[in-house]
Description:
- The complex is a heterodimer.
- Chain A is built from 11 helices and no strands.
- Chain A is mostly helical.
- The two termini of chain B are 34 Å apart.
- The radius of gyration of chain B is 19 Å and the shape is globular.
- In chain B, strands 6-7-8-3-9-10 form a 6-stranded mixed sheet, with helices on both faces. Chain B has a 4-stranded antiparallel sheet with strand order 2-1-4-5, covered by helices on one side.
Amino acid sequence: xxxxxxxxxxQRWRLVLIGGTxxxxxxxxxxxxxxxxxxxxxxxxxxxxxxxxSAAHPLGTDELGRDLLSRTIYAARISMxxxxxxxxxxxxxxxxxxxxxxxxxxxVDLVLMRFMELLFSFPAILLxxxxxxxxxxxxxxxxIAIGIVFIPGFARLSRAATEVVLREQYVExxxxxxxxxxxxxxxxxxxxxxxxxxVEAAVAFSYAILLESALxxxxxxxxxxxxxxxxxxxxxxxxxxxxxWLSIVPGAAIFLSVLGFNLxxxxxxxxxxxxxxx
Amino acid sequence: MSAEMIQLKNVGKVFGxxxxxxxxxxxxxxxxxxxxVARGQTLGIVGxxxxxxxxxxxxxxxxxxxxxxxxxxDGQNIAALTGRNEKAFRRKVQPIFQNxxxxxxxxxxxGAILRAPLKVHGIGTPDSRRDRVSTxxxxxxxxxxxxxxHPHQLSGGQKQRVAIARxxxxxxxxxxxxxxxxxxxxxxxxxxxxxxRQTREEMGLTSIFVSHNLAVIRxxxxxxAVMRLGRIVETGTVDEIFANPKHEYTQALIAAVPxxxxxxxxx
Lengths: 278, 267
């Protein structure tokens, strides 16, 4: 055990560890919100409204007297959930589309990738808004919409990575022993293109948090009274002069989570990059 | 049972496509190749890089399809293979590829790599497959414990031994080798070639051995085909080709071997 700790290359994993710590704290807060939060996120207290940070309310209260710390913690649940589901949707569908396009090539490749480019050609937020408008406003639809926004990125990445692996002779060997396409894709190709996809997934997490906040800010994501960093920011907008903490607190939460995921992404890229190995 | 195990008739392969803009990008990698390999014989195909040797081999492996001509293996046209017939063909014909560094999935152990062909063809139980892999590793001169290693832990020569093991685990009748020794040190080359020869004789394999190295071709082949720019320029038995090369390209190839004196002297 001691040996294991000594062998661990802290320097190499530095960024991943810092990012992981930030995200770890956020995830724990999100998972154990009812125990971590000092108040219910929905308890109104008109007497206490728009209070600055104090001993009773460490981060102050909002325009309806709700405890801001509690709301921020509960909002972390939504953000993490959206980030996780949306990134997973993008990762799974995008990866499969990319591998299939590269592997079968020709007409399949043409059709799939032109469709991906069609999705890619819209600005992400616009595409998400259009999808939300057609799917209806709810947090589940926000996850799906953000997931769809991610699909083309993952598809392009996995297609490029698959093209590289397809040139390796072990794929030809697999075909020569009569292995099925499905087995070749899952056993020979997928494990060998996973590294760049994981890095992309970490970046997608941070981007999903931003997009969810943007959608909720626009009133398309989480619906009041449910707390989300985006709709909290929207509320804070109206009280910028009297109660700046209403904007600063959810803003800081978004900043920290995006920073955390980006650190993990950057760190993983360095760790997994074979050229960085000494 | 026909005497010819492998028969190619006027085989051609054109790569590229006609484009809507910018005209045609077509390129004939192989043109009008006709060859025969008798059962139990080894045909050596020699030629420089880009002469279409590897493309030819991939067509015989049915990994890519010829754009013209036909290929018969054991009397059967391989273009018509489907389903069960194709599986039987895969079992009958196995490759050994050139580059030991990229021949194996880096994420899998040698054992898993060698068990895969058995698994795909539903041969044996997990235990019997394990045993068979151990036996086979020893047969190609490697310790059975290598089953637990990963490809990057093996040297080039060891990897090519594993490649030979993978090629024969399904007990094929035909082994197609694409420059299996060209990435190896000369001393290791000789050992791997010897293993190839020995295996071929023990199993009575029919084979095609592709190389740009005349000395290697001479060691392993019964007949030789000289390839240039996608065409066969000369065929004959080893002795005919080396003692009395007719085509000027063959003569140039033999003259270009730095130690051709010794090759000639080995006759």
